[in-house]
């Protein structure tokens, strides 16, 4: 079986959840004798081998603009894939919804992973939000299979677009602490800090969590890991708070994945404020690395944490964050118990091998229906 994958920056390039997802998936697909081709953004790769780790690579140029680079790349990649001998085209990102028309015209079996509620994210306003919602609706019209990574997202697609979808979650890799000394770079001690990890964008609610923590009585630090590759008022305003509250530590982007793992391992509590989307990769990292978790009260976060089994919740306001931090700051034994059981949250649903088997099932069903 031959599968072409479109919609990411490429392989083995790892930048975001999508690229991590593709890396975990394709390497397992190859081991199961699936012939995989990944379409890559040509400008991101100085070296352009035709194959890496058994994964075939095609480099397609695009015009580098914030809004259009992925769409242009996907259009040409879809056309190239439809003219190839591929059996199945697998697309990620709901922005690529309209391009299902191309595979429909060429009668190529297709599946799309539509991810989250992009049209609700604050960064997409006006035309951007309208496009994402329209593109998501188009995906439900043109693709043979819609894949969501959460049961709640499946419900939303049924309600909004009257289209059912396969639920195949994102995965997590269980890890244990190996080099706790790595956190010393930021002057930290095990259990001496709360942790936030992710992208520095409004819909991750860092402002609510940071201000809520600042109002708390905790003597621990709050470590914020992540950044954005541009200057904006939102991130600059929050970073400036470290000048008036020495409990705040902004590390910026940490590229050493071992160091990120140790920050999770050794945090007193991980704080998760992601609001939109389905199964969040950072939440699964927190579970995989043995973190105690407090999270924004959303259906998506509750689904991953199995309600109160693996986490506690705050509402989207500073007072709620403050009250939960003050409460859990004094409950050391409870936190240790949460840390000791969190890896159990990486159930079969979030196991990469099981996830790969589910994708193979979908691809095989598509090829059978296509004859």
UniProtKB/TrEMBL annotation:
Stretches assigned to the DUF1972 domain: 3-172
Protein name per its UniProtKB record: Glycosyl transferase
PANTHER family hit by this protein: SULFOQUINOVOSYL TRANSFERASE SQD2
InterPro entries: DUF1972, Glyco_trans_1, Glycosyltransferase_grp1
Keyword Transferase set for record: yes
Domain Glycosyl transferase family residues, every copy: 190-330
Highest taxon, organism lineage: Bacteria
Keyword presence, Nucleus: no
GO MF annotation terms: glycosyltransferase activity
Short name of one Pfam family: DUF1972
Keywords, alphabetical: Transferase
Species this chain originates from: Roseivirga ehrenbergii (strain DSM 102268 / JCM 13514 / KCTC 12282 / NCIMB 14502 / KMM 6017)
Database matches in SUPFAM superfamilies: UDP-Glycosyltransferase/glycogen phosphorylase (SSF53756)
């Amino acid at each position: 079986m031959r599968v072409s994958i479109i919609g990411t920056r490429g392989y083995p390039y790892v930048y975001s959840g999508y690229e991590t997802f593709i890396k975990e998936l394709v390497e397992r697909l190859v081991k199961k004798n699936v012939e995989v081709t990944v379409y890559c953004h040509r400008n991101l790769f100085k070296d352009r081998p035709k194959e890496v780790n058994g994964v075939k690579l095609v480099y397609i140029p695009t015009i580098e603009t914030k809004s259009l680079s992925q769409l242009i790349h996907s259009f040409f990649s879809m056309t190239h894939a439809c003219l190839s001998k591929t059996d199945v085209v697998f697309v990620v990102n709901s922005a690529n919804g309209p391009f299902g028309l191309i595979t429909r015209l060429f009668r190529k079996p297709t599946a799309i992973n539509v991810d989250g509620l992009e049209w609700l994210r604050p960064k997409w306003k006006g035309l951007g939000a309208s496009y994402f919602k329209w593109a998501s609706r188009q995906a439900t019209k043109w693709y043979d299979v819609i894949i969501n990574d959460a049961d709640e997202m499946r419900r939303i697609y049924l309600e909004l677009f009257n289209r059912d979808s396969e639920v195949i979650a994102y995965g997590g890799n269980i890890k244990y602490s190996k080099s706790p000394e790595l956190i010393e770079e930021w002057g930290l001690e095990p259990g001496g800090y709360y942790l936030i990890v992710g992208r520095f964008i409004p819909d991750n609610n860092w402002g609510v969590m940071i201000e809520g923590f600042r109002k708390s009585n905790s003597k621990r630090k709050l470590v914020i890991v992540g950044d954005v590759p541009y200057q904006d008022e939102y991130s600059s305003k929050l970073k400036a708070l470290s000048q008036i509250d020495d409990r705040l530590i902004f590390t910026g982007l940490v590229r050493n994945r071992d160091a990120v793992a140790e920050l999770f391992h050794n945090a007193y509590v991980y704080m998760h404020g992601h609001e939109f989307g389905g199964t969040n990769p950072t939440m699964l990292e927190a579970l995989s690395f043995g973190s105690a978790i407090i999270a924004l009260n959303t259906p998506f976060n509750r689904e991953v944490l199995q309600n109160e089994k693996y986490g506690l919740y705050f509402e989207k306001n500073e007072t709620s964050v403050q009250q939960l931090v003050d409460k859990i700051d004094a409950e050391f034994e409870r936190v240790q118990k949460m840390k000791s059981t969190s890896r159990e949250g990486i159930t079969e649903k979030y196991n990469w091998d099981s996830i790969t088997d589910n994708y193979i099932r979908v691809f095989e069903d598509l090829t059978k229906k296509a004859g």
